[in-house]
């Protein structure tokens, strides 16, 4: 417009129409409103689609069955439960490469954040609630995991190792090693002892774990004794009949 007006109304152009009382044009109004509206609609559709495509709680599309790991943030360590394998660990996890991993996450203390930077986005861990994260490692190797939310004096040492094994057989060998541990997590008393604040904790393995321990940890922070699950179709507000913890799930993430 700046170039066009300067050219049309230049001093040498004696044929330019002089309209001192001009104040409205339907054509101009149509252009100045239609173009911005189309831009807003385009950006809105693009944002909606990409936001839902990257939803961390959305399961990854993959032929392999996901490995489920329940994560509990403690002061100042990470406690991991493998419900299908019946084992638990402190500050170390393992899973096969090229296999989806479903993380169910909560906190035994203050709000925290579970993060494996090289694999995907962080997700918050909150007491009395369950969040979800889906990740996959495209290559085998050892990945560093951290807490990315300040949680007290031991925050800096709240780190763990995530081992992506080359195949399922190697993962099963890791599980077998954990099952050889003399330590077990069979009751809440043992759990509460582990949950006591401590810093720079070494890796620990538990060959057995109390069934539904993850749910019990969530429920102990709920005054009515039962947690709420907010994973439901859009528009619904009733608690999920499974009562698996208030689910603040977030986005599909892959490496």
From TrEMBL:
It is a multi-pass membrane protein. SUPFAM superfamilies: Cupredoxins, Cytochrome c oxidase subunit II-like, transmembrane region. One of its GO terms (biological process) is ATP synthesis coupled electron transport. Residues 64-177 form the Cytochrome oxidase subunit II copper A binding domain. CDD domains: CuRO_UO_II (cd04212). Its main location: membrane. This is Ubiquinol oxidase subunit 2. The gene is cyoA.
